[in-house]
């Protein structure tokens, strides 16, 4: 998927010759210390971030979306196939949860239809089904900015379902959630992966979430891939190598 990708900000290499390949339908955790390049890699995959000119290339679902430091026209179609979930600001605050989820259908409709809220009833049914599936249909009419963080994250997952996404890129989706909501969101991502065959790449600060929910883990450190393998292979020695000895206590913080 990403081959020899570098991204430089001023004098800092956020990504340094990163090559990773994630198969369709795979669920992968992306971990690493703060500033190691996780968000930059996800943003580059969606084309929100241009990569350095050079040999680097990013392919999404078989189509090249970035090459020679430029996004290609294929990036639009690739984005349509990718659901994005962020730590915050996933939804448009003043719109209802339902309208936010309907925005997932926007890419498939002629512009005017979405603009005037003239949603096809099949899409409305789909949106309600998606809200029901993620467990927040009771809040459909509520303004998004009055929902809890966990409800908003689940709304973002429902939007990805309505969008018909084939894959999900989630950037610290549980970082600001309480443990119960975090677990629910992680379980939903696992369900989408196992039941719907959606590919999931999720960045996580909590190592134990990565181990519990993902079979494969990729670790970045200072812009380089320092581990790519089964989550069972992440022992304390490896984690010290990734995060440094001073963070040993933090690896298992969610177990407390
Ligand atoms: N737009 C930008 N301008 C300048 N530097 C940037 C920009 N975006 C990222 N960086 C730098 O690139 C490096 C990687 O950042 P990135 O956000 O990808 O890390 P991260 O692993 O996602 O960190 P965190 O876990 O804290 O979110 C950091 O040193 C960051 O300061």
From TrEMBL:
InterPro entries: AAA+_ATPase, ABC_transporter-like_ATP-bd, ABC_transpr_PhnC, MetN_ABC_transporter-like, P-loop_NTPase. Signal peptide: none annotated. Keywords: ATP-binding, Cell membrane, Membrane, Nucleotide-binding, Translocase, Transport. Pfam families: ABC_tran. GO terms for molecular function: ATP binding. Residues 2-247 form the ABC transporter domain. SUPFAM superfamilies: P-loop containing nucleoside triphosphate hydrolases. Gene3D superfamilies: P-loop containing nucleotide triphosphate hydrolases. NCBIfam families: ABC_phnC. This is Phosphonate ABC transporter ATP-binding protein. It comes from Brevundimonas staleyi. The gene is phnC.
């Amino acid at each position: 998927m990403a081959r020899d990708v570098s991204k430089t900000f001023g004098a800092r290499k956020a990504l340094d010759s990163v090559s990773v390949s994630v198969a369709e339908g795979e669920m992968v955790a992306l971990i690493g210390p703060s500033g190691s390049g996780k968000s930059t890699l996800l943003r580059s995959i969606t084309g929100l971030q241009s990569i350095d000119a050079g040999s680097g290339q990013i392919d999404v679902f078989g189509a090249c979306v970035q090459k020679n430091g430029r996004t290609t026209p294929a990036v639009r179609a690739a984005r349509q196939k990718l659901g994005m979930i962020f730590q915050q600001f996933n939804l448009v605050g003043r719109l209802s949860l339902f309208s936010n989820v309907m925005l997932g259908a926007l890419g498939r409709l002629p512009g005017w239809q979405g603009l005037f809220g003239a949603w096809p009833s099949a899409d409305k049914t789909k949106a309600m089904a998606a809200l029901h599936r993620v467990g927040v249909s009771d809040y459909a009419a509520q303004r998004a900015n009055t929902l809890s963080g966990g409800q908003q994250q689940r709304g973002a997952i429902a939007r990805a379902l309505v969008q018909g996404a084939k894959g999900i890129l989630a950037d610290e989706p549980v970082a600001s959630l309480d443990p119960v909501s975090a677990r629910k969101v992680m379980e939903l991502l696992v369900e989408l992966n196992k039941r719907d065959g959606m590919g999931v790449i999720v960045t996580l600060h909590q190592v134990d979430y990565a181990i519990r929910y993902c079979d494969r883990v990729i670790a970045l450190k200072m812009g380089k891939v320092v581990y790519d393998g089964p989550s069972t292979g992440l022992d304390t020695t490896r984690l010290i190598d990734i995060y440094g000895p001073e963070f040993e206590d933090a690896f298992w913080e969610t177990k407390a």
